[in-house]
Amino acid sequence: MDHHALLQKFFEFCPNGLCLCSVKRSAAGTIEEAVPIAVNEAFCVHAGQPDTELIGRPLHLILRNFYLLTQKYFASLHDLGQSFTLELQLEPVHKPVTVTVFFLDDDHLMVILQDATEHQVAEAALLSIGEMWAFSLEGEGDGVWDWEIPQKTIHYSRRFKEILGISDELSDVDDFDFKDRIHPEEVERVSLSIHEHVKGLTNNYVQEHRMRSDEGSYRWVITRGKVIKRTPDGRALRMIGTLTDTSERRMITEALQRSQQWLSAFFQNKTHGFGVVDRQNTLFLVNETLARMAGGPVTAIAHRKLNSIIVPVDWQTHVSRAIAAIWNGHESAARMEIRVQVPQSEPLWVECSLSPIVNSQKQVEAIAGIFTDITDRKRTAAALHLEQEKLRHSTWMLERRVQELTCLYEVVNHLEQVNVSLSEKLQAVVEAVPAAFQLPQDTCARLEVEDQVYLSRDFVAHENSRIHPFLFAKNRRGCLEVFVSSAATPPTGEIFLQEEQAFLQSVATQLVLTLEQHFTLEDNQFLSSRLRQSQKVEAMGRLTHFVADDFQGVLEQFSENLTGLRPHLAENPDATDRYDRVQTVLHEGSRMVRQLAFFSKNRPLSANLTDPAQLFEPILAQFQTRYGKRIRFNLQTAVVAGQTTPLDRDYVSLLADQLLQNAADSILHMGNVHVTLARVHLDHEADDHLPPGMYLQLQIADTGVGMDAEELTHLFEPFYSTKNHRKNAGLGLFVVLGIMKLHHGAVRVRSTPGHGTVFTCLFPEIQKN
């Protein structure tokens, strides 16, 4: 059976009266007349006439008071599908019916009539149990109001009075009191609704509005009511209603609406992707941001499997395991960094946060995911890592340079020692040789030839010899020792005979000449090699100076560029931590370069009158920022503000930086570094050869691990370091000692293992030129 036949049977056998009417409209578009074109049997019963008398006759002639009661409601119908429902008593039927009217199209409407006799019987029953109903509502927390309409009085129940704060002594009041308590913005709407119900135009009265309490505040309430008694001609006599306090529910509703608005705003935001998956990992809810990340519109991404938009390796390694754990109740949330596949493009790095959506039985119904694009952050971290590798390579190259310079320094130090020794010996030659020629009787010689020893008291060296007389001469057959001073007694041996003097003289002369030639050739070769080595050291020193300056510039540019990245890392704690570690490494590298520059260029002292407090305060502030709450740096000064001391600012800044870094490195966990500035007077020459006078005393004390006696012995040696936990060139305290010597001052140190270390630097108030 087709649909048309089914509709025809429904029309015929429907228990409610059905009337299909054609509509005639005026020029203004209002309805002038409705003419039935089809009616069913039930409608004929309600109208009291057969269908032949109904079809083709205007509706107002069939139901004489129909237009009178429904005209206002017809005016409210504008669009197709709109309808109204009324409970009326139509003539000439004289029984209550419920009328429903709605438009099928612009030219046709449908009228449905339903018997309302049982409904009115129920209303009569309601009238008989009105008091019981009122007491029941009181028990449920609702207030009850009873309006005697002809007497214009209204009675409030006890709960009604409690809700609005009305005194219990107040009994029956004028019905104006009810209207007067309604909020001014809503009084017209509520009054109209009550009036329509009293006139019988609506089945009941329900409105939500605000009512004023006796305290003057307004509360949100729902008032409901129904006329339970009328005269035979339909005039209302009594109306009973309820008052429900909805202030708390209203607050909850508004909060829920705000939450929905926030959720909607979050769902529609442009920075975070949002999606919800079911147990089959199907995305049944997706916002535009997640769809854009996956490279398609919402319609293309919705209802796809979640694993289809995620890189397979990340899905297997992270996402699938996290989702399984959430479904099984083993995890309450999960957070991970994964890649989203983008068609014909590189994958996007996203931070994915998964959380369960549970029902009232605390069962997981779905899993919600928030996806945040972190591709830029990943690129920044990769660039930062690359710069770290570059810095690490540069530091390694710098350490190699330092090792090379270490070897050069050892050579230079050895050359200095050789030069000092040669100077002393040459001075002794100048002083001793004339005495040997003038006082031959004070000269003693010892000759050893093939195990035979000969001694002489009057030996004279060859007059052309430039070798010091007491140098040791040796050839293949024997050796000769010459003593200038008579106080130096030679070993025991036979005394030369008078006749052997000529032989001894010739042997001594030949040995001395041979030794002189050998030493002269060897000395020339040695001095030539030392000259070349010295030139290499000087050239390497200049090269180191230039490399240190250039590398310092590279580190400064790197630090500036790195500082520019800082605002972009605010939301990433891991990248911020890496940033801080890079800054620390940069500071270490900069300090090493400054040490190297000091070591290589040997710049003379440039002392200027300086306020020591102003010099040290920013340095301590930098260290406090770098170490935060782990180490506290304190500055205590007893120097009068504005009092100055001749200091080289660059060198003293390097000294303070090195000593503070040593103090910080010695503190393994939490600790303090105390810096004290004071002016002291030395009354006598100290052990470190400081002359009496006024000195600026810089004291740096830490609560670190301290040092033992062995470490203190080698503390100021170059390339010696107590920092076994990390690589260190060992130049820091050697540079500190050099800076103090340039200032003609001294550095002192005392330390006890486990009780910290104290460095004391004394700067003279008057500097030598």
Into how many domains do the coordinates divide? Answer: 5
What is the tally of beta strands?
28
Helical content (DSSP H or I, runs of 4+): 40-55%
Terminus-to-terminus distance: 123 Å
Question: Could you give a short account of the major beta sheet?
Answer: 6 strands, antiparallel
Going across the major beta sheet, what is the strand order? 8-7-6-11-10-9
Alpha-carbon Rg, integer: 55 Å
Could you walk me through the main structural features you see in this protein, from its secondary elements to its overall organization?
This protein has five domains: 3-115, 2-Layer Sandwich (Beta-Lactamase), CATH 3.30.450.20; 120-252, Beta-Lactamase, CATH 3.30.450; 270-373, PAS domain (Beta-Lactamase), CATH 3.30.450; 409-555, no CATH class; 604-764, Histidine kinase-like ATPase, C-terminal domain (Heat Shock Protein 90, 2-Layer Sandwich). It has 769 residues and is an alpha+beta fold. The longest helix has 65 residues, at 501-565. The protein is 44% helix and 26% strand. A hairpin with a 4-residue loop joins strand 6 and strand 7. The radius of gyration is 55 Å and the shape is elongated.
